[in-house]
Design brief:
This protein is of the alpha+beta class and 101 residues long. It has one helix and six strands. A hairpin with a 4-residue loop joins strand 1 and strand 2. It starts with a helix and ends with a strand.
Length: 101
């Protein structure tokens, strides 16, 4: 029983080390190109964002909240395609899909 209490305490101490710092990044620049395509009845947008790490520690993860109602073709980090899921990708970019209210 004592071992279980010690294990729980150690796990509790480790949790903050793995928590995502949602305040860590500041958008320093963004560039958006929007194109209206009436024949397809859509608005196409291409964009690039540049972030600055304002945290006192290096960040290994980035969380993007993306609307689930939009159609996404690709998302890249450092020129490499990353997946569109709620799990870690090879580049450690996490995506969180926002459901409409």
């Amino acid at each position: 029983m004592k071992f279980l209490c010690v294990l729980c305490a150690l796990c509790g101490l480790a949790l903050p080390a793995h928590a995502l710092d949602r305040e860590a990044f500041t958008f320093t620049r963004y560039q958006l190109e929007a194109r209206i395509e009436p024949e397809q009845q859509r608005l196409a947008v291409r964009g690039k964002i540049i972030l600055r790490n304002d945290s006192t520690t290096a960040q290994k993860n980035l969380v993007l909240q993306i609307s689930s109602t939009l159609s996404w073709i690709s998302i890249q980090a450092d020129g490499k395609a990353v997946g569109r899921s709620n799990s870690r990708s090879a580049t450690r970019v996490w995506f969180h899909w926002i459901q409409p209210a």
